[in-house]
Amino acid sequence: MNVATNPRQLVANDDGEPALVSEFLAADRREPVVHFTGVAKKFGTQTILDKVDLTLRQGEFVALLGASGSGKTTLLRILAGLDQANEGDLRVAPNRSVVFQEHRLLPFRRAWRNVLLGTRFGRNARAVAEKALAEVGLAAKANSWPKHLSGGEAQRVALARALVRAPALLLLDEPFAALDALTRIRMHALVEALWAEHKPAVLIVTHDVDEAILLADRILVLKDGRFSLDIDVSPALVRNRKAQEDAAEDVNHLKHRLLSELGVSTGAQIQ
């Protein structure tokens, strides 16, 4: 929860009174799985990340918001080890998995074999894959070819492939953006249930403010290469956000604040 560009972000405590994030940090002894200090990334003369500091801890569910071109995916790729920063100190847990917007299943491998890509489970491999598929509701699809899966099913296979490695850090790069509205709702519930069961640190990159509020217990906004907001969703809101009537005012206030930071008028859609 350490972002140097915003060290005194206000959140609400259990009594509904403002409290500093640092007060919550004092009681947070979870192991960090990500620790960035002064991380910068440039493409030519263009600065994408401007010496950002970031800590993600075990069990956190963090949403990263930002306009197109703000550096969200670049940051995720650095976390995933798919890209390198130009400078800064980076410490990232080695056991990490990524789910992209595209499922990236190999068309010539059945679902269970796609789950096992890059792993070594020996004689128990198929049983491990089938268990992972059962966790995402696809026990009956283990032998299916990718072309016979719906978009939501293919993305669930990709999620099973990520989780079968028991990652300390799960990175989600707009994984639901290409899905229809009903499938997205189901995927939100599934991801939340799997996170509650396995407790990795999760970072989801999204353009969707509603998605961020629904899933995350912490929300970051990336703007001009820096974190302009680092908001811990208050414990009271986390408990009540599923009860829409009780949480509506708090949710609307948070949504308005995030949209304003992103430069979007209330009620408009982020492009």
UniProtKB/TrEMBL annotation:
<keyword id="KW-0378">Hydrolase</keyword>
<comment type="similarity">
    <text>Belongs to the ABC transporter superfamily.</text>
</comment>
<dbReference type="InterPro" id="IPR027417">
    <property type="entry name" value="P-loop_NTPase"/>
</dbReference>
<dbReference type="GO" id="GO:0016887">
    <property type="term" value="F:ATP hydrolysis activity"/>
</dbReference>
<feature type="domain" description="ABC transporter">
    <location>
        <begin position="34"/>
        <end position="249"/>
    </location>
</feature>
<dbReference type="InterPro" id="IPR003593">
    <property type="entry name" value="AAA+_ATPase"/>
</dbReference>
<keyword id="KW-0472">Membrane</keyword>
<keyword id="KW-1278">Translocase</keyword>
<dbReference type="InterPro" id="IPR017871">
    <property type="entry name" value="ABC_transporter-like_CS"/>
</dbReference>
<dbReference type="Pfam" id="PF00005">
    <property type="entry name" value="ABC_tran"/>
</dbReference>
<dbReference type="InterPro" id="IPR050166">
    <property type="entry name" value="ABC_transporter_ATP-bind"/>
</dbReference>
<keyword id="KW-0547">Nucleotide-binding</keyword>
<dbReference type="GO" id="GO:0005524">
    <property type="term" value="F:ATP binding"/>
</dbReference>
<keyword id="KW-0813">Transport</keyword>
<protein>
    <submittedName>
        <fullName>Sulfonate transport system ATP-binding protein</fullName>
        <ecNumber>3.6.3.-</ecNumber>
    </submittedName>
</protein>
<keyword id="KW-1003">Cell membrane</keyword>
<keyword id="KW-0067">ATP-binding</keyword>
<dbReference type="InterPro" id="IPR003439">
    <property type="entry name" value="ABC_transporter-like_ATP-bd"/>
</dbReference>
